[in-house]
Design brief:
It contains 24 helices and 18 strands. By secondary structure, it is α+β, with helices and mostly antiparallel strands. The chain folds into 6 domains: about 90 residues, Zinc finger, CHC2-typedomain (DNA Primase, Chain A); about 120 residues, DNA primase DNAg catalytic core, N-terminal domain; about 120 residues, Dna Topoisomerase Vi A Subunit, Chain: A, domain 2; about 50 residues, no CATH class; about 90 residues, no CATH class; about 60 residues. The longest helix is centred in the first third of the chain and has 28 residues. The relative contact order is 0.06. About 5% of the residues have low confidence.
């Protein structure tokens, strides 16, 4: 691995890599420019042969850390990105061939999606696309026809895309897998029909799916490829630099809302595509900025979406969330068409802090007699999760002023946990824990990490598990990173005193680590890596989730049964395929046990 890193550093000079996104000039014999990690007018960001350093914000690192911060990638993915950029084989990143097979499959999927995108664009710009072009002109989106978003058109025909892709040599099962067709026993149908097509990319700009907006009476109005919307933010590839430069991200609900925002100069906008803002969404934004504005529709759904964001907000202590509540019946698209950029500037500037918004909304909608119970059951637990004591005190005083309840009474109900003792040492805890539950698989992973022998430990394998298969959130994720750093220094985490860990202040973490010492023999590592089994368990869990989602899709799509019975063949095929994959993984697990 160290050899690969050295080959990358030799092949790609750091000034060349950073110069792709930062304008560098010679200052006192060194390359310097405006720091990409904070706003500044005078260059304080210097690039040397083997590292960069900003004398303004303190940002420091090498080529790998630069790519990780700019692209929001894991360590292994950053290595792979740089290796591909330099044309260097990186077989050592694929210990069991799994990643190689995975990349081959992803490459094939890219070929199919790109061919479909080219077809969609050709239909929109061709003679059959006049009615769709008229629709775009009426919506004020005509300037996005060429370049820009990459709008396309799915014709009002049953199988035009299917026939085209088959003529290019692609196969029915892989078109089915890419959500481009419904495959049936007697006939195959296009997944999208009579819809304006919007391509969806991941944060690195790779095409991963399509969204379709109905141009007729088709229902639902919006239809998406099957992909995990909880993991991706629409437009993040496009908005990344603007978010970093402006040090804020604006989150809207739909992709047409985001496109409208871009047209009015709000390039820092992304869309959560109709889902609640998830932990993974926020994690990706947290790598780029510490300020997020939620701009949701002015209806009950938009209101609730903002409140749901609070579920994960406390896990990101440095992120500042604010909310703009649009007038009833308005969304960003309609609001901007009526009021223009200037009309939205003021609401964005005056956006309400998320926790204040949530508290005000809860109190406003609760009867006066029910407010004490609401405060005790909901609002005080929110305040208890605030790590900054000054900020927590501010909201306590504000709540006291709003409700008339003396602050000392509110403080009593806050109930911080008592100090915990670990091997004679008292750990002072100022705020209640802001932990998410630790699932069994993640618990086992942390345990093996804790007792891992440094001489045989593979950091890349463990980092790959964290990035692809595990659900480590909040403080558990930080604890895993601390264990990894310790192992990379060739030290065994279990040999360190529990009280010396930065994340070891929480009573639940302390209890977890004490439990590990009591069960040390259960985590002794034999000849094989325990992480192989954990990876298989992670894949098994993902496949089970896919099966659940497929069943939900069947339930939610019953309206299509009579209109398009062939769709049920597609869903059955997908269920069978996923079930078979699950059986393979379970067989491997039995052989690995």
């Amino acid at each position: 691995m160290s050899d690969l890193k050295q080959r990358i550093r030799t092949a790609i000079p750091l000034t060349t890599l950073i110069g792709e996104s930062v304008s560098l000039q010679n200052r006192s014999g060194h390359a310097a420019g405006l720091c990409p990690f904070h706003e500044e007018k005078t260059p304080s960001f210097y690039v040397y042969d083997d590292h960069y350093h900003c004398f303004g914000c303190g940002a420091h690192g090498d080529a790998i850390s630069y790519v990780r911060k700019i692209q929001g990638l894991s360590f292994v993915d950053a290595l792979r990105f740089l290796a591909n950029k330099a044309g260097i084989p990186c077989d050592e990143l694929d210990r069991d061939g799994f990643q190689t097979r995975k990349r081959q499959g992803e490459h094939r999927k890219q070929q199919i999606l790109q061919a479909a995108k080219t077809f969609f664009i050709a239909q929109l710009t061709g003679p059959h696309g006049q009615y769709a072009r008229t629709y775009l002109q009426e919506r004020g989106l005509a300037e996005q026809l060429e370049g820009g978003v990459g709008f396309g058109l799915a014709l009002n025909e049953a199988d035009s895309l299917c026939r085209h892709l088959l003529s290019l040599g692609f196969q029915i099962p892989e078109l089915d897998e890419c959500s481009l067709i419904h495959s049936g026993k007697s006939r195959n149908y296009d997944f999208f029909q009579n819809r304006l097509i919007i391509p969806v990319h991941d944060e690195q700009g790779r095409l991963i799916a399509f969204g379709g907006r109905a141009l007729g009476e088709e229902q639902p109005k919006y239809k998406n490829s099957r992909y995990d919307k909880s993991f991706y933010l629409f437009g993040l590839d496009r908005a990344r630099q603007a978010i970093r430069k402006k040090n804020r991200a604006i989150v809207v609900e739909g992709y047409l809302d985001a496109i409208r925002m871009w047209l009015h100069g709000f390039d820092e906008t992304v869309a959560c595509q109709g889902t609640a803002l998830t932990f993974e969404h926020i994690r990706k934004l947290d790598a780029l900025t510490n300020h997020t504005i939620l701009l949701f529709d002015g209806d009950t759904a938009g209101h609730n979406a903002a409140l749901k964001a609070l579920d994960h907000a406390f896990s990101f202590a440095k992120m500042f969330f604010r909310v703009v509540q649009l007038p009833d019946g308005e969304d960003p698209d309609s609001f901007l068409k009526k009021n223009g950029r200037e009309g939205l500037d003021a609401p964005l500037q005056n956006a309400e802090e998320l926790l204040s918004f949530a508290i005000n909304a809860k109190l406003r909608n609760a009867p006066e007699t029910g407010q004490p119970e609401l405060i005790q059951s909901t609002i005080l637990p929110w305040l208890g999760q605030i790590k900054d004591p000054l900020r927590r005190a501010f909201f306590m005083q504000k709540l006291s002023n709003q409700t008339g309840i003396p602050r000392n009474l509110l403080a009593k109900d806050l109930r911080p946990p008592p100090p915990a003792k670990v091997r004679g040492t008292t750990i002072k805890e100022e705020t209640p824990a802001s932990l998410t539950p630790l699932p069994p698989l993640e618990k086992e992973f942390l345990a093996h990490l804790y007792f891992a022998p440094p001489q045989t430990f593979s950091p890349e394998e463990a980092k790959g598990l964290i990035a692809e298969h595990l659900e480590l959130q909040g403080i558990w994720h930080s604890l895993a990173l601390e264990f990894l750093c310790c192992l990379e220094r060739k030290e065994e985490p279990s040999q360190r005193a529990p009280g010396t860990w930065q994340c070891g202040f929480d009573p639940q973490v302390i209890e977890f680590m004490e439990t590990l010492h009591a069960k040390e023999k259960a985590y002794e590592q034999g000849k094989g890596s325990p992480f192989t089994r954990i990876r298989l368990e992670g894949e098994k869990r993902s496949l089970k989730l896919s099966l659940e989602n497929l069943k939900k899709e069947i339930m939610q799509s019953q309206w299509e049964k009579e209109k398009n019975p062939e769709m049920w063949s597609l869903l059955t095929h997908s269920l069978l395929k996923t079930t078979k994959e699950l059986a393979v993984i379970e067989s491997l697990l039995r052989g690995n046990s």
